[in-house]
Amino acid sequence: MASDGPPDISTAQAARRLTDARFAPYLAEADDNHDLALELYVWNARISSALFETLHHVEVLLRNAIDAQFVPADAGAAPRDTWLEDTAILTPESLQRIAETIRRIRRDGRRLTRGHVVAGLSFGFWRALFDKRYDRLWVSHLHRAFPHGSGDRAQIATTMSALVPFHNRIAHHETIILRPIQVHYNELLTLASWIDPAAAEWIAGAARVETVLSARPGSA
């Protein structure tokens, strides 16, 4: 019969498999209680998985909302015919990120389209579009992607800047138990609500984050 949980191994075995350095934050959080530390390690993966689902929905909503502001919005168009390779719109740094994405798409043998490039760009690329150097682009195009926001570019930049390192920690399977998880989850939903409140409500309804948060090991 298949087990409902992880295999029954000792915490000493777990620490060897995870390396002392990786296990150390969990031991510290558990006051050197090895059993609790291992439970926290498993929970870290569970809450990361739940958060990644929400990140998935918000990031897709965000990038599509931004891309839609540059017409004609033909997902099948060649990138060279769109804003994605327009030197009058994007900085050299942003164009370099796009060039790297294009090379990756070609290397994978996929068709080079606007839609594939948009989908392949990192969360960090989208955050950079709200730097002060893009203030004119905010006024001309990007503010329309957030019809329910305050109209303040810096507010978008600040929110996304807080989310980028959190996003990266989750993507690289790092420890997030000491991070303000609830705060970042709320930031994700707020960002979505500035784009489309109905979409944000749907994302929240599909999320498992609150349920997993309430089941954190060692919480009273």
Keywords:
mainly alpha; 0% strand; 220 residues; single chain; 62% helix
Describe the structure.
This protein is mostly helical and 220 residues long. The chain has one domain (26-214). It has helices spanning 11-18, 20-29, 34-67, 92-107, 114-120, 123-128, 135-140, 153-171, 181-195, 197-206, 209-214. 24% of the residues are buried. The model has no long low-confidence stretch (mean pLDDT 92).
Short précis:
This protein has one domain (26-214). Helix content is 62%, strand content 0%.
State the distance separating the first and last CA atoms. Answer: 33 Å
Radius of gyration: 20 Å
Strand content: under 5%
Helix-residue proportion: 55-70%
**Average predicted confidence as pLDDT:** 92
Apparent shape: elongated
As for the number of domains, it is: 1
Total helical elements:
11
The SSE string, one letter per element, is: HHHHHHHHHHH
Based on secondary structure, the structural category is mainly alpha
> Using DSSP, what is the number of strands?
0
Largest sheet: none
Which oligomerization state do the chains in this entry correspond to? Answer: single chain
Low-confidence runs: none
